[in-house]
Design a protein that fits this description.
globular; about 25% helix; alpha+beta; about 130 residues; two-stranded antiparallel ribbon
Length: about 130
């Protein structure tokens, strides 16, 4: 749900940044002009009306990362959010993690914790204040 000054984090595995963009970005039906939900929104049951697409940040690395600093270092507010997320999950993360999705001004309620599909897997980590 939309909530100012909060960020929600998912980590997982996906083939590459192009695949991550396809998974997360909204699509437009050019024939009818309708906005189509991304598979990410569908997987985690997120209402498009609760999300501002301008506040979505995503990152995919070529190789697996073994810590959050490598995974999301350089993302917006990293100096604030890294220690807070590390307090939630520790400094190391499971193997085979190479991607992250951050939704800013959004506090996910965690109704869907983890998705394992054929070509990707993502797990909701938590939501924290970034101020």
């Amino acid at each position: 749900m939309e909530k100012q000054n909060f960020v929600s984090l998912w980590i997982g595995y996906i083939k590459n940044s192009s695949s991550l963009n396809d998974y997360v970005n909204l699509k437009c039906n050019e024939d009818e002009g309708d906005i189509l939900l991304s598979q990410f929104l569908i997987d985690f049951d997120i209402d498009i009306d609760d999300l501002d697409e301008d506040f979505v940040e995503k990152v995919a690395h070529e190789n697996s990362c073994n810590n959050l600093t490598t995974l999301i270092g350089g993302c917006s507010y990293d100096s604030v959010i890294l220690p807070r997320f590390e307090n939630m999950v520790g400094t190391t993360i499971p193997e085979q993690i190479n991607a992250a999705v951050l939704l800013y001004n959004f506090e996910y309620d965690g109704r869907e914790k983890e998705i394992n599909a054929k070509n990707y897997s993502f797990k909701f980590i938590g939501a924290i204040s970034y101020v």
